[in-house]
Design goal:
heterodimer, A: mainly alpha, two-stranded antiparallel sheet, 19 helices, 64% helix, B: alpha/beta, D-Maltodextrin-Binding Protein, domain 2, two-stranded parallel sheet, 16 helices
């Protein structure tokens, strides 16, 4: 019998080591593939979307003749409101043409074409400004006004001279004029706060579209989800974990909770439509219904980590509490729950994060809509969170369906905003876990 | 345990406030995704020029919108359904069953359906017969009905280049599909004389022959797009041979990426459709619940505003976006102003 040296690897050892190396290589490949996919996603989203946070404006002095804007002559708001944005557009065209002439830039374009370089939103901006400051009538007003989406796209590289030559909505002459105006300092690009605060805009004015309503709607829904699902989930998990007898019924409930967590979210949308809208007659498109539907979806997804957090509190804590004479309830609420709280909270935040990104159930309850009015948290008519709104993921879905290419940029911008929200929520979850987590 | 008490009382308040009052002060619209851009343009202008809140406009398709329209009356139902086709008798019956009997039909204008390919591809001059020969499931060859053998466009029409047939047409849930089948495929079938030939083969059953004409091939040469025109555009950008079916408005907003084909020698424009020269167009509608006119604030004003000359006229923002203005707009305005109900038919 020959004794082999431990220092010389035999065939079997070599084989085992080779298998280990292969496995490491597989693992590394998997991670590289995952990272590449993530990079591709981020590059494509940020590449098209980052520009939505900058926007092109023109400084325009608009004449405000009294005979056009205030027939009453006494600044009667009701009379002044009779002048529509269509009336203001004419003044705007005149004002912008004057600006171009004053700048000394030669151009062949007609007044209508020059005016068309401004956003259609500009007329609304100036009308609101005049109605709020009626003393300006008879003078002139100088405002920063949005440029139209094609001009804005030119400064962002989305529109080129070649594409403009084929484009029926702009022309190379307009782009050349815009460039000259930019060089003259009349047109400028600045950070686009309006993207985060403005409501949605129609297909004719992608440059004015913002996420204001969607962010508010998402916020309201998250409040509803938090207020409804947190107490229910905590109560359910405490009962199941600490008080419930172990029998066939509780087993059944347990299996069902796990199953519910895996139910496709669209199913909850159908449920929500049937219960909250058709039966309880809550307002469709409202964040209340959206929040309730998302709560249903989130509940099992919170109960599972909450139970795990409770389970991870060692029995010795309960025993000690009971040993010094605490009741079962006291031992749970004074000792077990506070120790499990960080784990529960993490589960809640991750559940909220999932709910924030959910679109499918909202399709069925009328939240995929064109909404321009900021929803109020409470109105006597519509009740709590009862006014129509959209939500962030829904806004992404909406914008990808629009015809104007300007909305592609907006949709990616909305994705970036949504990702930032999710990142912040997950960061908070990680922070809380790190800060309060106990290990035994 | 004050947190528990707090949440419990918040829940209670939420429950009470939501069950008591349910009034709505904005107009609620749903329906056709073709009408959606127009409706949202009008909603936006309406919100900015009137003291009423901006109407909420939902998409989802003509059929889905009309279904919700016919769910009943009340604050909890929509006020207006957009449709890219007329309401069907079966839908009217469903409406009547739910108590929605007084309906105002408003035709807002016409929408052209265009055929477009990638900007760098070949240019086409189609006739409906070309589309029939390219896309029908079965065609007449030597007097017999056979499975469509055409795989390239030059087999369809020798004037065309040798390019594989690859069409992206609207899926069956779209109102546009119906128009495409009737005004292009069926018209082409008739034009090519195939309708007669098929009727001759099946014993004179005109109806069945029409059905055979309109059956679209399913061997992958024609792809149903269930999403929106943005999806069709993405498919064409990915496949240089692709030819897609679009709404005129969508094409007008993407002229730097798409080239449009002529149909029977006519270039589709707002003017050629308004003049009736371009053959493939269809009317767009919206339907109003008359019973809601006095209940929902702003509904009458919104409807009046929608069809006003400033908005829906030939120089208005809708025409600028691609809607073909209704030559009989004055009659439509009168219908809306007088709230003239649809006559039962």
């Amino acid at each position: 019998m020959t004794h082999k040296s431990l220092l010389v690897a035999d065939a079997r050892t070599k084989k085992r080591n080779a298998a280990e190396r292969r496995f490491k290589a597989y693992g590394l490949t998997a991670i590289v593939v995952a990272i590449l996919a993530l990079i591709m996603l981020l590059v494509s989203v940020f590449g098209t979307g980052a520009s939505s946070f900058r926007q092109t404006y023109a400084t325009v002095t608009v004449p405000l003749p009294e005979d056009k804007l205030d027939k009453s002559g006494v600044r009667d708001i009701d009379v002044m409101k009779k002048v529509t944005t269509i009336g203001y557009t004419k003044l705007l065209n005149e004002g912008f043409e004057n600006v171009v002439i004053a700048s000394g830039i030669p151009t062949e374009l007609s007044r209508k074409d020059i005016g068309g370089m401004l956003s259609k939103e500009a007329a609304a901006t100036i009308r609101d400004h005049i109605l709020a400051n009626s003393e300006l009538v008879g003078t002139e007003a100088t405002l920063d006004l949005l440029m139209n989406g094609r001009i804005d796209g030119y400064f962002k590289g989305r529109v080129t001279m070649e594409s403009a030559a084929l484009d029926s909505n702009t022309s190379p002459e307009e782009l050349a004029l815009a460039q000259a105006l930019k060089d003259a300092g009349i047109v400028h690009t600045k950070f686009n706060w309006a993207f985060l605060t403005n409501p949605d805009a129609s297909d004719q004015r992608p440059e004015a579209a913002g996420l204001g309503v969607a962010i508010l709607g998402s916020l309201y829904m998250m409040i509803v989800v938090l207020v409804t699902s947190l107490p229910i989930a905590v109560a359910a998990s405490i009962y199941l974990e600490e008080f419930a007898p172990k029998n066939r019924w509780t087993d059944l409930i347990e299996v069902n909770i796990s199953n519910l967590a895996a139910v496709p979210s669209i199913v909850y949308g159908i449920l929500g439509l049937a219960i909250f809208i058709n039966f309880l007659e809550l307002n469709q498109s409202s964040p209340l219904v959206g929040g309730l539907v998302l709560s249903l979806m989130t509940l099992p997804r919170i109960i599972i980590p909450a139970r795990a957090a409770l389970k991870s509190v060692p029995p010795s804590i309960r025993d000690a509490a009971l040993g010094v004479g605490a009741s079962k309830m006291q031992s749970v609420f004074h000792h077990v729950l506070p120790l499990a709280a960080p784990g529960i909270l993490t589960g809640v935040i991750i559940g909220l994060g999932q709910a924030l990104g959910e679109t499918a159930p909202l399709l069925l309850i009328g939240m995929v809509a064109f909404v321009r009015e900021y929803p109020a948290a409470y109105t006597p008519d519509a009740g709590l969170f009862g006014e129509a709104s959209t939500a962030l993921p829904v806004q992404v879905y909406n914008w990808t369906q629009r015809a104007d290419p300007g909305f592609v940029e907006r949709a990616s911008g909305a994705i970036i905003t949504l990702l930032i929200f999710l990142l912040v929520m997950n960061a908070v979850a990680i922070f809380l876990r790190r800060k309060f987590e106990r290990r035994w | 345990m004050s947190i528990l008490k707090l949440t419990a009382s918040t829940l209670a308040i939420a429950a009470i406030t939501t069950t008591s009052a349910m009034a709505r002060d904005n107009v609620q619209v749903a329906g056709s995704s073709t009408v959606l851009p127009y409706a949202s343009i009008v909603a936006e202008l309406f919100g900015e020029n009137f003291d009423f809140p901006t109407p909420v406009v939902e998409s989802g398709g003509s059929s889905a919108g009309l279904k919700r329209f016919c769910e009943g009356l009340g604050d909890n139902t929509i006020d207006i359904a957009n449709a890219s086709r007329r309401i069907k008798d079966s839908e009217l019956a469903a409406c009547a069953d739910a108590g929605v009997t007084d309906i105002i039909e408003v035709r807002i204008g016409y929408d052209g359906i265009v055929f477009a390919s990638g900007i760098d591809g070949n240019h086409f001059e189609f006739t409906p017969a070309d589309w029939y020969h390219a896309l029908a499931a079965e065609v007449i060859v030597d007097g017999a009905l056979v499975t469509n053998p055409n795989t390239t466009w030059d087999q369809v029409n020798p004037a065309f280049p040798n390019q594989p047939i690859q069409a992206f047409i609207p899926g069956t849930k779209h109102g546009t599909r119906e128009v495409f089948e009737e005004k292009v495929i069926l018209a082409g079938c008739e034009e090519a004389g195939a309708l007669e030939a098929i009727a001759g083969l099946n014993g004179g059953d005109e109806k069945a022959a029409e059905g055979t004409c309109m059956a679209v091939r399913t061997d992958g040469r024609s792809v149903d797009v269930d999403g929106d025109y943005t999806e069709t555009l993405a498919r064409i950008e990915a496949d240089a041979n692709g030819i897609g079916v679009f709404g005129l408005a969508f094409y007008e907003n993407n002229t730097d990426k798409l080239q449009v084909a002529t149909m029977s020698g006519v270039v589709p424009t707002v003017e050629s459709i308004a003049a009736g020269d371009y053959p493939v167009s269809r009317p767009l509608y919206f339907y109003i619940k008359a019973a809601h006119l006095d209940v929902i604030p702003g509904l009458q004003d919104f409807a009046d505003f929608f069809v006003s000359d400033d908005v829906a006229g030939p120089d208005g923002p809708l025409a600028e976006y691609g809607l073909v203005s209704d030559p009989e707009l004055a009659d439509v305005q009168e219908t809306v102003a007088n709230a003239t109900l649809m006559s039962a038919n």
